[in-house]
Amino acid sequence: MANAKEKILETALYLFNTQGSRLATTNHIAKACGISPGNLYYHYKNKEEIIRALFVQMGGEWELKIEDVTEVNFALFEEIKQLSHHLTKKYHFIHAELYALCQNDPELTRLNQETITKRKAQTKALLEMLILHEDLVPLGTEEMEFLVDSIWLYAIFWQPYNELVNPERLESVSIASTDILLGKFLVKKDK
Amino acid sequence: MANAKEKILETALYLFNTQGSRLATTNHIAKACGISPGNLYYHYKNKEEIIRALFVQMGGEWELKIEDVTEVNFALFEEIKQLSHHLTKKYHFIHAELYALCQNDPELTRLNQETITKRKAQTKALLEMLILHEDLVPLGTEEMEFLVDSIWLYAIFWQPYNELVNPERLESVSIASTDILLGKFLVKKDK
């Protein structure tokens, strides 16, 4: 049973990422899984439920990495950036279509707000630790809000933005995004 | 004749902004205009053509302001920011749905790439003038690319991002977005 659900999610993710979630129907997903539409509906009532399950699965992969953080330093920031980059690619359609998906599903809107609120609090705590360690310059309330929101703006939309605008140099721009921004808030010092 | 086309665009824009472009059909647009679907198709072959016409109309409003620039200074930058903010609101659905819209229409993808390439060149020229005037610090190639792309990332996605993440304080965050970023590249001086 668990295997059937996993298979559906995996197949749906592939189809959503390659065709976009609008074109890939539950019938397509069932067919690609080699099961009947009825069998698929036994596991997931509709496409929205599949999309929410993928959203929650992505959140789980994030938490797995972030929850056992004991030491805050730039190496950790680097790891988080790599993870974020990895998840942006793996769950590509969620990022690229996030606005339209939420517009289409109030339950996903709620889930997304809950998740981002949590992530923003984690990010703020991380930045505050970096300030305590004098790695980052002290930030006023507005600057802190801006930096946290910017980090998540980049995390969610930098990849889709570049696909639209700079498709020819996608790989080269996708990692360095927040480095330059964050660099502007670094304490200048020799270590 | 021109009036009928204008009326269709105006009505379509209102419906796309309030319901999203996926739900608002050409039949809805025709009905809201008080014309028959056949009459609408006489002017626009399909929804994609209406969306492209709105995209081009938005570009025209931008050019109108930017093309007669004779002097580059921060007051101009302020004006451009206000214009960008105004257009983001007026053509809200284009920004919020841009990725999905382009996914759905290769012709719009081409138009959008052409437009953003032009806008990025304008932005870069503006920033270079500000550097010449010693208002901005000199920028390396990578930093310049990053700043130009960031300005457009914010211009397109800051509003949709905040709708998703910070709906309760949308007005307060929408203007100040690039100020803090740009502030990081300012030459520190008393004038």
**Average pLDDT score of chain A:** 86
CATH superfamily of the largest domain in chain A: Tetracycline Repressor, domain 2
**What's the N-to-C terminus distance of chain A?**
54 Å
Largest sheet of chain A: none
Main structural class of chain A: mainly alpha
Q: What is the general shape of chain A?
A: elongated
* CATH class assignment of the largest domain in chain A: Mainly Alpha
Identify the most extensive interface between protein chains.
A-B, 43 and 43 residues
Write down the oligomeric state. Answer: homodimer
Parts with pLDDT < 50 across at least 5 consecutive residues of chain A? none
What is the count of DSSP helices of chain A, taking H or I runs of 4+ residues? 11
CATH fold name of the largest domain in chain A, please? Answer: Tetracycline Repressor, domain 2
Number of domains of chain A: 2
The percent of residues in helical segments of chain A reads: over 70%
DSSP E strands of chain A, number:
0
